[in-house]
Write a structure and sequence with these properties.
alpha/beta; 1 helix; 110 residues; single chain
Length: 110
């Protein structure tokens, strides 16, 4: 009786763990602005726990199209710490810690 209960609980925990991994890997990645480095760049942090493209990085806002969810273009000075953004990154990253990134487009989420 004890082994049956133990196996049932173990199987349930494995299924819950696999479900968590599946949901986490398929989640859309958004970033939170956690700090301002200089006037034209911000520190961003990913919302994904497993396999983020960049866990924490510096995002340059020079020559980047920044829009809100309705598609209106906004200035980078309107971005504040705690804002949620979605970024379309350029393929080149600077080799530093945290990595220095640039993007084609940044969308400010509500």
């Amino acid at each position: 009786m004890k082994t049956y209960l133990f196996r049932s609980i173990l199987a349930l925990l494995i299924v819950i763990g696999l479900l968590f991994i599946f949901v986490e890997l398929n989640k859309e990645e958004i970033f939170t602005i956690v700090g301002n480095e200089i006037e034209t760049s911000v520190w961003i942090e990913s919302n994904k726990l497993l396999n983020p493209s960049y866990k924490r990085a510096t995002l340059s806002l020079m020559y980047v199209q920044i829009v809100n969810t309705s598609g209106d273009e906004i200035d980078f000075s309107e971005l504040e710490i705690g804002d949620k953004i979605k970024a379309d990154f350029k393929p080149l990253a600077f080799l530093s810690d945290p990595p220095g990134l640039s993007a084609w487009k940044v969308t400010l989420l509500d």
